[in-house]
């Protein structure tokens, strides 16, 4: 976790150290700290609360950088603890619809989830619902071979809703435990593509009225504040039940996860902190909070 969040912790932790070293935590320092928290994408509301807490608690006192970081980590953990929840498989087949904009890492996330569930001995079906891109279909087939999951796919350009209907029906017949449905990357401002996502959900429910049992929105951490609008729009369209944050290792903007938790309160199930299969990790509030400010767990 610490390694994966090194860019964020270097940026934020370095800023805190620079501000506090050899200075009192006076009004000017607290204002600068608030600015750094906003710059790290933790969100203006959270930053204001932190500034207020420091003003009341340690105003005009000398304080070490590690003490500030520990206080900061504690406040971040308070925000993240309610959303750090595992993805619980409650029925069979458990249908997971995976959505997100282009390039967010949906297909790779599906492959890593398949590897995780297969390592637990569960049967998995991958559904190549991104029918717009031949590369996405091929990528999912490779993950199927790699993990021993079955793959339901059709030719590029096929109707994604029809494919999903057939996949869920087949999973029920075959006793598959986990169904992971890929979807085409779509911008949250493209109404017709968002409409197709609604259609996939609608058609899926003709087979199983309770499906999908989870709707995961995959977010690329490098987009920063844009993630807020993605959660809002996808939430209205697809009924997002949980988040997966990818590419945290490639950005100094990991703080956006705090802003998301603060604003939406959606469960954060997994975070991606590297390229390897094992780098899609279950989300834990304390580890993340301490890593993001540059403290050892």
Would you write up a description of this structure?
This protein has an 8-stranded mixed sheet, with helices on both faces. The relative contact order is 0.19. It is built from 11 helices and 8 strands. The mean pLDDT is 88. It is 51% helix and 12% strand. The protein has 297 residues and is of the alpha/beta class.
Q: What is the global morphology?
A: elongated
Helix/strand-derived class? alpha/beta
Tell me the strand order in the biggest sheet. Answer: 3-2-4-1-5-6-7-8
The helix/strand order is HHHHEHEHEHEHEHEHEEH
Number of strands: 8
How far the N terminus sits from the C terminus, by CA atoms, comes to: 9 Å
**Average pLDDT number:** 88
Number of helical stretches of at least 4 residues: 11
Percent of residues in beta strands? 5-15%
Radius of gyration based on Cα positions: 21 Å
> pLDDT under 50 segments (min length 5)?
none
Biggest beta sheet summary: 8 strands, mixed
Estimate percent helicity: 40-55%
């Amino acid at each position: 976790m610490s390694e994966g969040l090194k860019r964020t912790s270097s940026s934020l932790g370095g800023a805190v150290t620079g501000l506090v070293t050899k200075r009192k935590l006076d009004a000017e320092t607290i204002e600068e700290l608030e600015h750094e928290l906003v710059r790290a994408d933790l969100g203006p509301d959270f930053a204001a609360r932190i500034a207020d807490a420091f003003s009341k608690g340690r105003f005009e006192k000398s304080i070490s950088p590690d003490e500030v970081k520990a206080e900061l980590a504690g406040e971040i953990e308070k925000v993240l603890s309610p959303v750090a929840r595992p993805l619980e498989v409650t029925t069979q087949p458990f249908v997971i619809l995976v959505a997100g904009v282009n390039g967010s890492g949906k297909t790779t996330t599906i492959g890593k989830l398949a590897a995780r569930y297969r390592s637990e001995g569960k049967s998995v079906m991958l559904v190549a619902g991104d029918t717009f891109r031949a590369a996405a279909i091929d990528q999912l087939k490779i993950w199927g071979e790699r993990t021993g999951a079955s793959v339901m796919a059709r030719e590029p350009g096929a109707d994604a809703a029809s494919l999903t209907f057939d996949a869920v029906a087949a999973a029920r017949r075959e006793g598959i435990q986990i169904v992971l449905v890929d979807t085409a990357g779509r911008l949250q401002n493209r109404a017709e593509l968002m409409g197709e996502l609604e259609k996939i959900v609608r058609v899926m429910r003709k087979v199983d009225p309770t499906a999908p049992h989870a709707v995961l929105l995959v977010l690329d951490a490098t987009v920063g504040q844009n993630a807020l609008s993605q959660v809002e729009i996808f939430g209205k369209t697809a009924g997002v039940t949980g988040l997966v944050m990818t590419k945290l290792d490639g950005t100094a903007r990991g703080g956006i996860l705090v802003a998301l938790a603060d604003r939406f309160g959606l469960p954060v199930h997994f975070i991606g902190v590297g390229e390897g299969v094992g780098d899609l990790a279950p989300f834990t509030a304390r580890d993340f909070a301490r890593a993001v400010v540059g403290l050892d767990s």
